[in-house]
Structures are given as structure tokens and as C-alpha cells.
Amino acid sequence: MKKVLLSVVAALAVTAAVPAFAADMPVKAKKVIVATPSPWDIAFGTAFTTDYELRGVSQSNHKPAVQGYFEVRYNINEMWQLYAGVWGSSLWTGFANAEIDPSAGVRMTLGNFGLDVGYVYYGYPGGTTPTLANGSYGEAYIKPSYKFNDMLTIGGIFETGFDNFNNKATLPGVTWVGDARHYFYAGNAMITLPWQPAGITVSINPEVGYEYYSSGVTTNYGSVSDTFWDVGLVLNYKAATLDLRYWGTNVKAGTGAVVNQCGGAVNGTNFCGDRFVATLKFDTTFAALK
Q: What is the per-residue pLDDT across 134-178, written as a single tens digit (0 to 9) for each?
């Protein structure tokens, strides 16, 4: 009987020791593979607006316009991003039915400071009529920004065409007279309110800008230097943004035989005038869809 009892006790002791012994044995861990995010991404979106306003001047003759874009991005690291894309819009300016703008550049982010440097080509397919010789042209831009906190970001823009406004396009048989300088400056702010009703981010976006045209541009096109301003109420929910904006400029349409960027009585157009514009946008990226 003692032998049987001792055998049972020994068996239990060995059984109890096995887990402890196994716990002390080295275990080969499974190799964990961490996927590296791709540096490539594509942003794209579309917009529907009641009036395509560019620096206080309607490009759609105060009619609705449809717009869209896509942009290929390459993130070198957390600080640098390269990009290239195309933006387009329907319009009505008297010389073209569409605007197609390819652009490319580099964005830098350093702490709360951001900088966007690039080049945009304003393309107007078929942009010439018997009375208006506006052509396609390119300009370089610099856009700095600084984020003070989650509620306030300020930004600016400087853009120039390097003394070649509209590629000095003229009507057949007409020679460009004078210089062709064009500069554009603007400052803006994004003020995000501290409350989000139903998950909607609410922001106020004021902007003021000055557009300079040299005497040569005024002589050939009638365009005159102007100041514009706008302020928008921006409502954002995920990929959707509703922009409710009021625009104004100090330039009025020309009188008599005078025609400027706002139009004129001689051709019955007026592309300027203070007005309210509503725009509905949808924006996302391929990375956000994964």
C-alpha cells in the first residue's frame, strides 16, 4: 500500500513540476511584421459653387460652376512633401468655357510653421475671341502659414508671373505694348470655434488681398490694380465642407468704352460686385479610404 501511495505522490509531483519547467524554457517568439506606410498618396475632390469667384472677380458670370481636382503626393519624410496635380472648373468669362490648372511644388512642415512653394499654369482651352485675347499663363507662388494653436492658423500668399502676364497674348495683328507685370498678395486666417455641434467643425475664414497690374497690362487689357476681401463660414464634417462666403472688391466695371477685369458697359458685362457665394466640397485621399 505504501508503494502505491508513494507512486501516486511521485506522479503528482512530476505533473506539477512540468508547467514550471516549461515556463522556464526559452520560447521562440513569432516574427511580427510591421507594414511601412507608403510615401505615395493621392488627394482628390469635387466642388459645386453658386459662383466661381477668383480674387473678387467672377469667372462664371455669377452662374454656378462645377470644379474638381486630383493631386499626387510623395512624402519624403515628416517634413517634406512633393506634389503635382490638376484643378479644373467650368466658367464663363467670354473667351473660354473651362479652366484647367496643372500645378506642382513642395510643402514643408517644421513644427507649427508650414511653407508651400510651387508653380501653377492657368490654362484656358480656346481662350481667344474676336474682342478678347486673354491667353493661358503661368505663375510661381509662395504660401507660408503658422498654426498658433487648435483655434487659430494664419497664412499668406505671394504670386507673380515674372513680367509675362497672360503670355503677352494679343489679338491677331496686334502687338503687345509695354510691360506685363502682375503680382498678387493676400493674408488669411482660419479661426476654429471651440465647439462641434453634431461633430461638425465650425470655422471663420477671413481674407484680404491686393492684385497689382503694371501699366502694360492696363494698356493691353484694361485690368487695373485692385483690393479684394472675403470672409467665410466654413462647416466641415468628415470629407464634406460647406463654405458660405461673402466677397467684395473695390473695382467696378468700366463705363463708356472702358473695359477692365470686371467687364464694362460696352459689352454689357459686370463680373464684380459684392455678393454671397455658397460652395459644397468633397475632399479625401486614398490613404484615408483604406
A: 778 899 999 999 999 999 999 999 999 889 988 888 888 889 999
Structure confidence at residue 45 as a pLDDT band (50, 70, 90) = very high
Q: Count structural domains, the chain.
A: 1
Q: 137: domain range?
A: 41-289
**Residue 8 has what pLDDT?**
39
- Report the candidate in 137, 124, 222, 135 with the shortest Cα–Cα distance to residue 170: 135
Angstrom CA distances, 71 to 86, 88, 240, 285, stand at 7, 12, 18, 9
How many Å apart are CA 81 and CA 100, to the nearest integer? 23
What CATH code is carried by the domain that includes residue 229?
A: 2.40.160.40
Nearest-angstrom CA–CA distance, 26 and 12? 24
26 domain residue, yes or no? no
| Cα 98 versus chain centre, distance | 19
Q: Quote the mean pLDDT of the chain.
A: 88
Within a domain: residue 53?
yes
Hey, what's the cell of 221?
A: 487689357
In a domain? residue 33: no
- Is 2 contained in some domain? no
Give the 3-state secondary structure of residue 34.
coil
- Name the residue among 91, 216, 206, 217 with its Cα closest to residue 154: 206
